[in-house]
Amino acid sequence: MSSTPPRVTAVDTYDIRFPTSRELDGSDAMNPDPDYSAAYVVLRTDDPDGHQGHGFTFTIGRGNDVQVAAIRALSHHVVGRPLDALCADPGSLNRDLIGDSQLRWLGPEKGVMHMAIGAVVNAAWDLAAKRAAKPLWRLLAEADPEWLVSQVDFRYIADALTPEEALDLLKAGRQGATDRTARLVERGYPGYTTSPGWLGYSDEKLTRLARQAVADGFTQIKLKVGADLDDDIRRCRTARAVVGPDIRMAIDANQRWNVGDAVQWTNALAEFEPYWVEEPTSPDDILGHALIRRGVAPVKVATGEHVQNRVVFKQLLQAGAIDILQIDAARVGGVNENLAILLLAAKFGVPVCPHAGGVGLCELVQHLSMFDFVALSGTTEDRVIEYVDHLHEHFVDPVVVRQGHYAAPTAPGFSATMHASSIAEFTYPDGEFWVKDLATTAPESTQAPESTEQNGAAA
Amino acid sequence: MSSTPPRVTAVDTYDIRFPTSRELDGSDAMNPDPDYSAAYVVLRTDDPDGHQGHGFTFTIGRGNDVQVAAIRALSHHVVGRPLDALCADPGSLNRDLIGDSQLRWLGPEKGVMHMAIGAVVNAAWDLAAKRAAKPLWRLLAEADPEWLVSQVDFRYIADALTPEEALDLLKAGRQGATDRTARLVERGYPGYTTSPGWLGYSDEKLTRLARQAVADGFTQIKLKVGADLDDDIRRCRTARAVVGPDIRMAIDANQRWNVGDAVQWTNALAEFEPYWVEEPTSPDDILGHALIRRGVAPVKVATGEHVQNRVVFKQLLQAGAIDILQIDAARVGGVNENLAILLLAAKFGVPVCPHAGGVGLCELVQHLSMFDFVALSGTTEDRVIEYVDHLHEHFVDPVVVRQGHYAAPTAPGFSATMHASSIAEFTYPDGEFWVKDLATTAPESTQAPESTEQNGAAA
């Protein structure tokens, strides 16, 4: 036990990869063979209570090592920080990471470097919530509105949302929060499931999983589309027949189309009454989404899992380009930027339906939606969190989904902590699983064999 | 000499950093202390004539190792490719790199991974031009229009530019190309200089360098602004007094402002008649640029050095958000994507004034503007290539600027090849310069000391 105030002592990184491509889990029109992976980071501390901050970037295999390198490039901003100051103001870390002028050149605020910032910032919030002995959703929901506003970077969004407007929204959101907390704890937050709809699944598996989804209490499912129109028509017909007219059915093209194709293809599936069409084109194409939205109504347009930052979300809202805003907990710069995005969505009155699945994305993003319900938007109407039943067993506090609802987490933190045994087994290429696997198979599905990247090293 | 067709035998990468921050060269409102750097790649071959392909991503110091890791992650797509097929169709490599479904998750088509693709694709074009014994501008300008169209990825831009429209533009651009080639070879391509205007320079240095710029034959200079309005007013007044009313003076805020600030600040400098205001806000803010353009006219709005891809350029043009489009040779996915962007600019009738400077950016981008002049837009009116007199001595075929004009390169290739001695000296942290430097100074200006990145290793 040190007599100096506790600090971050090290930033450890891990290249963790799960061989999901073997089962075609997660297969869609753009991602035929993902190996769900995490560039995982642990903020080690000398906190007398032993708390550490966990975070990660989700990737789908190759390039996870690049993401790990990016996280390491940030570590000098973190090591040595006093925990009290860091946890009292995670926004200070966020500002320093975003503001590193040399690293900023590699974005700015997008792609590999920005996701690395998100991993580190989220790890700081995990640490803050653990030290506060609260699940993150509750820490945020009970926080002072002025303090929440101080956690938001208004640069580049002030033309759409001022700090004063943000404060008003958060103060209004506080009304009735106690009742909503009680409702959330009692009933959970509604989810929807993508498990039936992966492109690589047979019609038989689609039918079986769609039926199971309804039996499990979900009121919405999602199907991947965009590779072949005849296949999509058959699969949508099959799914609609199984779930009946009252279950919402979303379709997801994973950026497969040009603007014109998106309109035509979606309208060709309109008879099956898709609730929303997701990622119809490039996530960068704000004006394209606006055109598509006008061309496919009443089918709603949703996007966000690949939207790089608050600046693009701002414009999607300003341009009236989306009906549904899909935050992702690990794509943007972490909790601070997602606060900005939730506030923008609230300002524009657009419902937030988070992207999840992958590795640990459900675990993270549930906290953000639950905060939004309790203390910002105040409603779950037309709001659902994506749910995919993959890889939860690797987390110490996995999501609990009952009757189609996410149960409110009770454990302190951001639910980001992975089991040490999982890290040990699936670290690439030196974990037990990969050592065995690489000895028997060609490694090309996840990584060029000549990589010299070290895994699990402290930085 | 092998009896099999020649191939790419290895992808070598180098982390090269120049200590430019010591002189405040390159200092602006967002980048106070850049160490100009290159994540450098060499496609090694067994070409009987010994040709190799050189390319790089420009960075400003920290994170250059992340960029090197990203280039390495692409190497399995390149090693083993037959050179004849690669050089006959660099677009095939471009498609494979962009289309890697696992790596795509880290973008898509933006930031670190996309710049890595640009470095590798540009190296392939360097190789193709060397094997064709032509400077790249001439290879492109003399290429068959149908073939050029085949090199463009129309995904996500077809709503603004179809392959048929691109072909028409290129066929029209071919008319008079022989005459324009002769004019280009005789007179060169106009440039402008940013050398006087770095924020870190004293008024005396600004005055001296602005006077020198006019004496050197430049008809446009550029000043960095955005840190302090009073300073900017004084510096603009000083520069305008030195250069007189007939020299164009651009100002560059390097993304410093919100939308409202950009309008106010630019208008506060209007009395000094800036020709354009560059990067007034986030490069992601298409709608913001459109607002700014309406608010600052007749001052023109320019952006592009941080614009991530053709999808964002497309929208900047569709939204009428810019007067000047600033391509960068090493920010987007390489020559193929810059062909798309030049075609978009030609379609919308917006002049292209490339970003350059840094390390080697002048060397690369001159080829693109010269192709555009000879065989696409057909004009240099209101078009200038940025010029900064830094670090050219490290290149085997450095740019030659006379009387404010870039001389047309004559050496085969993309002018990307760095001297082996420069690579050896400035490779970080094991090159001679850095070994000596790191022994005497704290390393924090360029890199966290705990980095384990290896440099110069073959991947």
From TrEMBL, chains A, B:
It catalyses: L-fuconate = 2-dehydro-3-deoxy-L-fuconate + H2O. The keyword 4Fe-4S does not apply. The keyword Cell cycle does not apply. InterPro entries: Enolase-like_C_sf (IPR036849), Enolase-like_N (IPR029017), Enolase_C-like (IPR029065), L-fuconate_dehydratase (IPR034610), Mandelate_racemase_C (IPR013342), Mandelate_racemase_N_dom (IPR013341), RHMD-like (IPR046945). Its EC number is 4.2.1.68. Pfam families: MR_MLE_C, MR_MLE_N. Residues 203-299 form the Mandelate racemase/muconate lactonizing enzyme C-terminal domain. Its cofactor is Mg(2+). PANTHER family: ENOLASE SUPERFAMILY, MANDELATE RACEMASE (PTHR13794), MITOCHONDRIAL ENOLASE SUPERFAMILY MEMBER 1 (PTHR13794:SF58). This is L-fuconate dehydratase. It comes from Streptomyces endophyticus.
